Each structure stands twice: as structure tokens, then as C-alpha cells.
């Protein structure tokens, strides 16, 4: 089930309807969340490797930083990204 | 012309005692109605003082049926106690009888926090100018109640101190108009702050330190059925000697502070998620550090006026 999502200013918040956990998204995390939401089908998790490639190649995101790794973990917890 | 209601302060103590003895006194807080019975004479006098502005109402329905009763057996005479009952059940330990009003206030707060899940209960004070609401959210000890009390005494309409009652359907803030519980140093600060301050007795050495209750004013009580639209979120903090400092908070940070400090955010799930997000989407949020009450109040007034101007431009 797709998380509920609200854009708030430059950041955002997401509510995981399965775990009832709320995720606070920094502006950087918000960009990633929105980008991956657009390319996903909303039902199945996106495979991790193509998602990382998309972030690196299309958005020029350095996926090896602690902050981005934390964002990706949150997206995996929400079921948006595969393992 | 609307007739002046019969307020509890104008009621004969005999009549008030009869009402309480028959458990037929109704306190209308706005968002909730509480029915109360008691047989404790000292409690009746304290209640009449801090609830003096409340109208004597005959409500057919009450959300909570409460009682403050004396101790049983030896405890009726030896170190007398007060017992708080909800629906005839005593949910926690008795208090010393001289602290019965504090016990009642604490008990009613407990009832709200446990059972009032049709609304999102923010851990926040709420005030308004006309229908423009200010949410004052902060952890205990931050000076929130002191500033909330001072704002009421300077012309803001008080909606609530402890519970910011947010209706998830309408997005409005409902009054939950209880006396403000002032603690420790803030009791003297507020006593000296204005001439028309009505304070209940100071209860020394309670579980939360020294506590006294500030009576809500007539204007706030008479408007207890008028909700307000959230327009501004303030996270106040008092620091002795601090210069006034105001910092706009990123919206996602404001959301986290407001949501995760609410009483029932996790109980309501998606309902509270959307309700709090609606507030943050429409209200600028600021961290406000202060040491002088009047200066802080004027800054809140200015921020509220700015928020209004911004929403009219939008």
C-alpha cells in the first residue's frame, strides 16, 4: 500500500499505512521520494539497483552519503524500494 | 441583547453544594461537557473561585461523569483524602483532601487524554484573536502556560492550555476551556502581571511542584462554543534574561514537533497525520525564545497579523 504523503514547504512527511510509522523527509529526501514515486507503479517496490542508477544518472545524486543511505532505508521500510 | 448568564461565582454556595451533592453540576468546556458531583466543602469553595466565570447550565448530555469524594473509613478523618471517580470507578490513587481541586483538574485531564479520541489532542495551548487561532506547543517546563496565561490577560481569547483540540473533519481548533495550571515561579509572575487575576489556592508540594489555577475570563468562557481556524504555530521557550528571538521553522520540523508531542497522534494514525499536515500547510511556525512577557505577546500579535496578511494575499 502506497504511503500517504504530504509536501510541506521544501520538505515533506509520509505516513506508512501498514506500519503506522511517520517519516519526516528533509528537502533532499523529499526530492528523492517524489522522483521515485513518479517512476514507480505505486504497488510494487522499485528494484534497488535501477532506482540507484536513476538517482545517480538522472538526478545526479551521490547515493553513497550517510544522509542518502538513511533516506533509502526509510523508503525500503515504507515498501517503496526493494532490498 | 443577550442576557448575562448565571455564573458560578454568583451562585449561592448553598445551591452549589446542593448541585454537587446530587452530582448535577455540569461544566461546559466547549469541546467536552463534564458532570461533577462532590461532598467536600473545601473543594466546593475552590471550584467556585476558579470556575467563577462558567455558566450554570443544564445539559442533557455529558461526555464524562466524574465525582470528587472523600476518603473512606479512617481516611475520612485521619489525613483526609479526596478520591476522583469516573463512571463510578477510581482510576488512580487518592490525593490529600486539601488538594481536591488539583486532583479534579488532573483527573479530568486524564479522562481527556485517555478517551477523547474523536479529536486530535495536541499538547499545546491555544488562543485566538477573533477566529484566528494560535497554537502554542512546547514540552512541560518551557514557559508555555505562563505565556498562554499572560496572553489571555492581555486580550487574547483562551481556548485551552493543556489540550489543543483539533477537529480532523473541519480543521478547526475547539476550546477546551479549563483553568490554567500554573506551576512554581509562574504563579507569582502571573499574580503580579495584571490586576484582574483570579487564582485558586496554591497547592504546595504536589507531584508537579507548587500548583495554582488561573480562572479563565468571562470573554473566553462565553465563547467556549466558538472554534477558531489555526493561523499560527509557536513553539515558545522561556530563558531567564534572553533577548527575544524568533526563528521560522522548516515545515517538516514543525510537523514533527507538533505531531510527536500530541496525546493521541499514534492512536489516530492517518487521521492525525492529515490533520497535523493541514495545520502546518496553512500556518507558519516559529520557535520563540523570550524572557519578557509583553515583548513576546506583541511579537505573537505581529506574527498573527503577518500570517493573516499572507493568507489574504494567497
From TrEMBL, chain A:
InterPro entries under this entry? PqqD-rel_X
What is the protein name given in its UniProt record? HPr-rel-A system PqqD family peptide chaperone
What species is this protein from?
Candidatus Accumulibacter adjunctus
UniProtKB/TrEMBL annotation, chain B:
Organism superkingdom: Bacteria
Query: Which protein, by its recorded name, is this?
Result: HprK-related kinase A
Protein species of origin: Candidatus Accumulibacter adjunctus
